[in-house]
Amino acid sequence: MSSEATAPAGKPEDDGMTWWYRWLCKAAGVLGGVSCAVAGVWNCVTVNPLNIAAGVWMVLNAFVLFLCEVPFCCQFIEFANAVAARADKLRAWQKSLFYCGMALVPVVLSFSFTTLFGNAMAFAAGVLYGLASLGKKGDAVTYARLQHQKQGDEERMGATDGGPE
């Protein structure tokens, strides 16, 4: 039997994230959605069309963050579960690029404190997912063993290359 046959069908593949880090990323996404929504509505209270466009984009960012991270908040939207299932299948680096890219668009449209601080938490969620894609840090014992092996290899290479003929 292969490992794919024994894995549960509903659980996504293990991406190396611990349970607390996964919840930290989700919490950052939810807080990012709240900050985007509040700052986006506040940003729309103006006459400048670029500020209004950035505010609408921020509210859209909030909706997408809620849809991807906490789909039970959008239970009355028919496609919410399908979008959330697809978002759960994305790798951490893909989510990172998506969240950071979404957070940068309003800042580029209208650079202000409202757009900068409103999108900071959404960008932080993308950074957390990006850090998760780097993987776990190795332990000191394994690192020391690799360094010792590398030194031994260098000594052997030095003995065979530098010897008199």
Give a verbal description of the structure.
The protein is mainly alpha-helical. It contains seven helices and no strands. The longest helix has 25 residues. It starts with a helix and ends with a helix. The N terminus is likely disordered.
* Amino- and carboxy-terminal Cα gap: 56 Å
Look at the structure and give the mean pLDDT: 82
Radius of gyration: 23 Å
SSE series: HHHHHHH
Class per helix and strand makeup: mainly alpha
Strand count, sense and barrel status of the largest sheet are: none
Helix content: over 70%
Proportion of β residues?
under 5%
Low-confidence segments, ≥5 residues, pLDDT <50?
1-12
DSSP helix count?
Answer: 7
The strand count comes to 0
Shape: elongated
